[in-house]
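Fold this: Protein-glutamate methylesterase/protein-glutamine glutaminase
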Amino acid sequence: MPKSPIRVLLVDDSHIALEILQRILSQAPDILVVGCAKDGIEALALLPQVNPDVICTDYHMPRMNGLQLTELVMMKYPRPILVISISVQTEDARTIFKMLESGAVDVFPKPPSGLFEDYKKIQQDLIERIRVLSGVSVFTRTKRNTLLSLEKQTYKEPAPPPVFFAIAPDTQIVTIGASTGGPQAMQTLLTQIPVGFPAPIVCVQHISRGFLMGLIDWLGSLCHLPVKIAVQGTMPEAGTIYFAPEDRQLEFDDRGRFFYTAAFPVDGHCPSVTVTFQAAAKIYGARSIGILLTGMGRDGATGLMAIRKAGGVTIAQNEATSIVFGMPQVAIKMGAAQNVLAIQEIAPFVMNHILTTQTSSISF
């Protein structure tokens, strides 16, 4: 029997955008647009009737915006949501990432021109994103997270984690790579890291062009450590979270300083997780920790193996907590991951490892 097409519901207050999206998605034989809505209220009314596999929604809409729609969908009809938005400015992008926090799976840039020709340029990428999201089935967990976020007004936030006191300084580095589902996983992991963490944390996140600063701004508002883009020629500092810049491969020079290399893809990506992991293995060796999180494809697996061979510690996110188990699964199958952990277990594991390593290095 032929496989049923992926059923997509489009939500956007722009009639032109809806027309263009329908047009370009109709080119994919395995995708069927089953409904269009101009705001969240219309979308909620349509949901039981059209039963979509994936919802594509904008943020800015009258009556009910994309964030409100996401919260209600994840409570009543949980399913994958792709945010298609022009909002890449800092003030708007933080709200876009709040949609991810509330249960949306991924973000995708809407062409600012609104012209059909520009939509055509991103057609294949959009189709591939929808195909990936149609296989995501972690709705129950996302629903619980959404309910918790909605109850924050009656929930007393816990005190910040205690300051992490480094016993013996040692030049270690933590490197993290992620793709689809990465922003949510990064939030869970990085917000557990306390003030005074005695190592730099260097992250590579596959994300659509224009959304990196929004991601950094969003995480910076939640984390106990400063979050910034890695600047070429600067030395990574302990207690700081760095992200690889857009369209550059992030490595380290012989002195351990950040170094950008040519903008060519490795494992299909620039920046590539594998490139940064391999650089950490080369410069930091056994003092490097590699963490590979949720994502489609295989980027990072070869790099994680390089860290393991250099004597470093390697961790892969487990299947149960990964939105997409592609990248971690490849690393696990090739034997690159020494430890396979749930996302909420990774930060405590890393802190315990660093504390144990530093304690054992003290000579009495």
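The chain is about 40% helix and 20% strand. The two ends are 71 Å apart (CA to CA).
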